[in-house]
Write a structure and sequence with these properties.
By secondary structure, this protein is of the alpha+beta class. It contains nine helices and 22 strands. Strand 8 and strand 9 form a beta hairpin.
């Protein structure tokens, strides 16, 4: 185990760019730490992206996150340095300059608690001669005398209040610190100094444990990097093999189709040749028969007629051409394979979220539908339940009984996705509603009434749906909800945007009219539900 002195050595916490103790330290992929501002400024000033320490070059600028453990260690180090700097102890007179000397500051020999001034040998003389000054309290020279004075009574703080953990003067005992546990500064100093070694040991243990944690995390990152490379290589190989197999099968299938077409064409051309020859022969017989019928040589006619009238002894029905080019079974199998791969990929939350976000829509709240107590922001992206109802013009679109609002944008086909922030709210509901929902009277959030929603707050810590399904309990409270709708497939799904996890889905829905994104901020209950619902921008996949 490393010695405590080496663990606390300053060079461990210095940024190699600014040469100061880390501020928001971040770690590069090569494992070196820098202040966040320093490394980004360094990269901004260079054409290449490389580590300032080991000069390793990165093809693309890495996305850096603050190294929380190193940040904590740097913070502990700064605190330790401040403790050392502020620890009371003997102070050399040479360290304290005379406050009276105007040009060259001589070293002070005494400080006066009454004058709050430090004096050199020359300027101390009046305190040794003048009767009024002889009664002043002199002590060895110290810096910052003003900090040792009580700001309320302008007296020296010679006492320490353990109750309030503050330095006080004797007059404070009669006012704010009456009946508090108060001791002299010397006594408290001795008490605290007895705890110094234990505090230092605890700090060193914390530094040691965090250093070990850093090593553990860095080792885990190395292992993760290796596993990531292996997984990428293996996945790439599998997909490459599948692509090659499909490409080979595609080529073989195209070749087979062409071969069958050539064979069918060759067979058909043979039939056509025979049929054309037969037509030529039949037309020749027809001409000969016509000529014989005009002849008066009855003997020749009777002898030739049987030959001209004889059948060709060939059945043309056996020359049918059948084009066997149907490969629907193959296409069906490949289509099923594609669907299977898509289904498996969408089981990965990040992939599912990425694909849904490809259908993101830009929404704004519709003030014409908003209940009169709802306040919509100027950009139309936030809605808050107000304390009082506003005087608004009558509008058939407006919800009158409950604090509901729709988006301006409606949809009659395809897919769409939006995200809404619900952080800080105690009750809310979001989802979609059909255009014809009741807006004036008492309506329940049900599918029959035209609502497909996810609700929170109707029961403590539970989520409900407009379908009346059993309550949904989540480990983490939703902060941002993603709503995905596939109009044609009849699906409405809800997701936890932060964890990218699925919460609930309505399936096999039958939509027959325009759907509008729906929001129910609920009432502001004595300020307990004052947070707004916010339509947040949806990050677009790269």
């Amino acid at each position: 185990m490393a010695a405590a002195s080496s663990l606390l050595s300053e060079e461990r916490f210095l940024c190699s760019v600014c040469l100061d103790v880390f501020t928001e330290p971040v770690s590069t992929p090569c494992g070196h730490n820098f202040c966040s501002a320093c490394i980004h400024k360094y990269w901004d000033s260079s054409d290449t992206c490389q580590c300032p320490f080991c000069k390793r070059t990165f093809s693309t600028r890495p996305e850096l996150q603050v190294n929380t453990i190193m940040s904590e260690l740097a913070g502990e180090f700064k605190k330790l340095a401040q403790v050392k700097a502020s620890t009371p102890g003997p102070q050399l007179a040479a360290d304290v300059p005379c406050d009276i000397c105007s040009e060259i500051k001589e070293k002070a020999v005494k400080s006066c608690l009454m004058c709050l001034t430090s004096f050199c040998e020359v300027h101390l003389e009046p305190h040794q001669r003048v009767a009024g000054l002889k009664s002043h309290t002199l002590l060895d020279p110290v810096k910052n005398l003003d900090d040792k004075m009580c700001k309320t009574h302008n007296k020296v703080t010679e006492l320490y209040c353990r109750t309030d953990q503050a330095c006080v003067c004797v007059l404070c005992l009669k006012t704010d610190h009456k009946s508090h546990d108060v001791v002299s500064l010397e006594e408290e100093y001795e008490t605290v100094m007895e705890k110094k070694d234990e505090a230092m040991a605890n700090i060193q243990k914390l530094v040691q444990s965090r250093s070990e944690k850093i090593a553990e995390i860095e080792k885990s990152l190395d292992v993760c990097q290796i596993e990531s490379e292996k997984e990428k290589e293996a996945s790439t190989q599998v997909f490459t093999d599948v692509i090659r197999c499909i490409q080979r099968s595609q080529a073989e299938l195209i070749e087979l189709i062409e071969e069958r077409h050539r064979a069918t064409k060759q067979k058909a051309e043979g039939f056509l040749k025979v049929l054309r020859m037969e037509i030529t022969e039949l037309e020749s017989r027809s001409s000969q028969l016509e000529m014989l019928s005009q002849s008066e040589d009855h003997h020749h006619f009777l002898q030739s007629f049987p030959t001209l009238n004889s059948p060709l002894n060939k059945d043309c029905t056996i020359t049918d051409v059948h084009c066997d080019l149907s490969f629907e079974a193959v296409r069906g199998a490949v289509t099923l394979l594609k669907r299977k791969v898509d289904d498996i990929m969408e089981e990965l939350p990040e992939i599912k979220m990425k694909r849904m976000r490809e259908h993101a829509v830009d929404l704004t709240f519709d003030p014409d539908t908003a209940h009169c107590s709802l306040v919509i922001s100027q950009d139309g992206k936030q809605v808050t339940a107000g304390d009082t109802e506003q005087e608004l013009p009558n509008n058939p679109k407006r919800f009158e009984r409950f604090t509901k609002v729709l988006a301006k944008e409606g949809f009659t086909t395809g897919k769409f996705y939006y995200e809404v922030q619900v952080e800080g709210k105690t009750r809310w509901a979001v989802g979609v509603a059909r255009e014809s929902v009741e807006r004036k009277g008492d309506t329940k959030l049900s599918i029959t009434a035209g609502f497909w929603t996810l609700d929170f707050g109707f029961k403590e810590g539970e989520y409900g749906t407009s379908e009346g399904c059993p309550a949904i309990t989540l480990e983490e409270k939703l902060q941002k909800v993603g709503v995905f709708v596939d109009y044609n497939e009849g699906v409405v799904s809800f997701y936890d945007v932060d964890s990218k996890s699925h919460v609930f889905s309505f399936t096999r829905c039958h939509f027959t009219e325009k759907l509008y994104p729906y929001f129910y901020p609920h009432f502001n209950e004595n300020g307990q539900n004052s947070a707004p619902l916010i339509l947040t921008p949806v990050p677009q996949p790269e």
